[in-house]
Design goal:
The complex is a heterodimer.
Chain A lengths: L1 H14 L8 E3 L11 E14 L8 E8 L5 E8 L12 E11 L2 E11 L2 E4 L13 H4 L9
Parallel strand pairs in A: 4-6
Antiparallel strand pairs in A: 2-3, 2-5, 3-4, 5-6, 6-7
Chain B lengths: L2 H59 L16 E7 L5 E6 L18 E5 L2 E11 L5 E9 L1 H87 L2 H28 L7 E4 H15 L5 E7 L4 E4 L1 H18 L3 E10 L2 E8 L27 H11 L3 E5 L6 E7 L2 E2 L2
Parallel strand pairs in B: 7-9
Antiparallel strand pairs in B: 1-2, 1-5, 3-4, 4-5, 6-8, 8-13, 9-10, 10-12, 11-12
Helix pairs in contact in B: 1-2, 2-3, 4-5, 5-6
The chains are: A mainly beta, B alpha+beta.
Chain lengths: 148, 416
């Protein structure tokens, strides 16, 4: 395996192959689920958007949330659209736990847990592993993304 | 060997073997697992070292960290990796899963690899420094999947369990077989012991009866001789009474002879004989004793049956059986049917007579058991004795209102 790896690296160096498809990569500004910046935001949904977030992946559901306490706006990345099958509406109150980061003076949130209408949706595990990529929730046969 | 013995001698060692297998298999698996983990650790270290050399080279060349993330292409076991600066801030990262890079400030102080649990299995994490030629320090953070290792361990556990189950099943089948054989052996031994006891008891009775018969017959002979003498000397008025007394004495003598004869062991002198001839001779002898015109006589055989037997004894046997059948049948059928299957003769002697009471059926072959007023209970006993002396078996059935059937099975049958 080591030999294969060395050959692979050499091939990459020679050919200058870019990052492979299906592999998410990011520079300094690329967001990842950072457990050190985890925060709970409670607020009202101002907008629902579908945006591509990761290379070669389905678009994500983005909620623009206005925080109750501070009035700050967060763009919360929920999950791929196909995974989240619960109807959310503008004006609804939600509570999101996730990793916060800033970009271009905007506040962003990668959601781990979403509470809405008496239901809880576990979107990632405590270290940020996405539920739609397998794991216990999916294996236990629970409703996709649906909370317990 | 019963219950406890069987447990001690068969089941306990088997359970011991299973336990040893289980312990050995568990130890072996944990050894393999620890060895595999060590190998993975070595591999990860080697992979990281190669990465670092190449990363340092590319950074020296002036590439930005985010431009060189594609280096680990094809390494499917690497879930994520990141390049960190001297302060352990992430400069660039790459992950197989959307936004998944489980690196926190708490991990920044680690110098030893650590394992992180994820829904897809354990991930082996390593944070190690490397430096550019100009001395600038970077860190490489790698997450290496232990999934294949876990799958291997799970497969190994599965195979061990399957092997254990297989051994268990084989053991159960084996010991079930052994237990069955043991049970059959015990039953057979018990049967033989019972037969032996019966034989012994019979030998004692026989010896006792012979002695009694001998003791009775001596004075009877003297008495018979005395009556013979008296018959010549007494006056004609009492001659008839003396003759009657002599006849009664002879009757007693015959009864004693019959008893003695039936108790003697049989030694058949075998010769090839026709079953039809034997049965016909017995039937003719019976008809000479008493004819029963209202009873229909039948004899049938699929093909002529020949057997190796003592002709006289077999005639005696069939005479007794047919006598029994005729005596039980006032009007109806008495029949003998014979057939051969695999050199084994089956003869059925049946009648449509009164039948035998179910509670008496098991006793009909016992010596001196009779339901007849004039019978001595020797006929069927003797018939069984003759059949057994020829290595055969005899049984009886008497369903209510359907007469009686005696079934004889004899070895050494042929059609010629």
């Amino acid at each position: 395996m080591k030999r294969q790896l060395v050959l692979g690296i050499l091939a990459c160096l020679i050919a200058g192959i870019p990052a492979p498809a299906g592999q998410e990569s990011g520079g300094q500004s690329a967001p990842f689920y950072n457990v050190d910046t985890e925060k709970q935001v409670e607020g009202t949904i101002r907008e629902l958007l579908f945006e591509p977030r990761y290379q070669n992946k389905a678009p994500f559901l983005i909620l623009v949330i206005e925080e109750k306490k501070t009035g700050e706006t967060y763009r919360a990345e929920i999950s791929p659209v196909w995974f989240f099958d619960y109807d959310l509406h503008k004006g609804e109150t939600v509570r999101v736990v996730g990793s916060v980061y800033s970009k271009d003076d905007n506040q962003f949130l990668i959601a781990r847990r979403l509470q809405c209408g008496g239901e809880t949706f576990f979107l990632r595990d405590s270290r940020g592993f996405p539920s739609w990529r397998g794991g216990q929730m999916k294996r236990a046969g629970r409703h996709r993304g649906r909370g317990m | 060997m019963k219950g406890k013995g069987l447990l001690l001698f068969f089941i306990s060692p088997f359970l011991g073997v299973l336990a040893i297998f289980f312990i050995f298999s568990t130890l072996n698996r944990s050894f393999i697992q620890s060895r595999s983990e060590a190998l993975v650790r070595e591999q990860l270290t080697a992979t990281a070292e190669i990465f670092k050399v190449n990363l340092a080279h590319l950074l020296d060349e002036g590439y930005a960290p985010e431009d060189i993330l594609g280096l680990y292409e094809g390494e499917k076991n690497i879930y994520y990796f990141a390049i960190l600066d001297e302060q352990k801030s992430i400069l660039a990262w790459s992950s197989r899963y959307e936004g998944y890079l489980p690196f926190s400030l708490q991990d920044s102080g680690r110098t030893e690899p650590w394992i992180l649990a994820s829904p897809l299995g354990k991930i082996y994490n390593r944070l190690s420094p490397f430096s550019r030629t100009d001395g600038k320090v970077y860190y490489l953070y790698l997450g290496y999947s232990l999934r294949s290792l876990e799958e291997m361990a799970a497969r190994s556990s599965r195979y061990s369990l399957l092997m254990l189950l297989f051994l268990g099943a084989v053991g159960i089948v084996f010991f079930w077989g052994v237990y069955g054989l043991q049970k059959r052996y015990l039953a057979k031994t018990e049967e033989l012991e019972e037969a032996h006891r019966e034989k012994e008891r019979f030998r004692e009775i026989s010896a006792f009866t012979s002695a009694v018969a001998h003791e009775i017959k001596n004075p009877l002979n003297s008495l018979s001789l005395l009556l013979e003498l008296l018959q010549g000397t007494v006056h004609s008025g009492v001659k008839d009474e003396v003759a009657l007394g002599k006849a009664e004495l002879q009757k007693i003598s015959r009864i004693i002879d019959s008893f003695s004869g039936s108790l003697k062991p049989l030694r058949p002198v075998k010769e090839t004989a026709s079953l039809r001839e034997i049965v016909t001779a017995a039937h003719d002898a019976l008809l000479r004793e008493a004819s029963k015109p209202e009873v229909e006589w039948r004899f049938s055989e699929s093909r002529p049956v020949f057997l190796k037997a003592d002709r006289e004894l077999m005639i005696q046997c069939f005479l007794n059986l047919l006598r029994n059948a005729y005596e039980a049948t006032d009007r109806g059928i008495v029949a003998v049917e014979a057939e051969i299957r695999r050199k084994r003769i089956t003869v059925r002697v049946w009648d449509t007579g009164r039948g035998i009471e179910p509670d008496r059926l098991p006793l009909v072959f016992d010596p001196f058991f009779t339901t007849k007023e004039k019978g001595m209970g020797v006929g069927l006993y003797l018939a069984r004795k003759i059949i057994e002396a020829h290595g055969g078996r005899i049984g009886v059935e008497s369903p209510p209102s359907q007469g009686t059937t005696f079934t004889i099975q004899l070895p050494g049958g042929s059609h010629e």
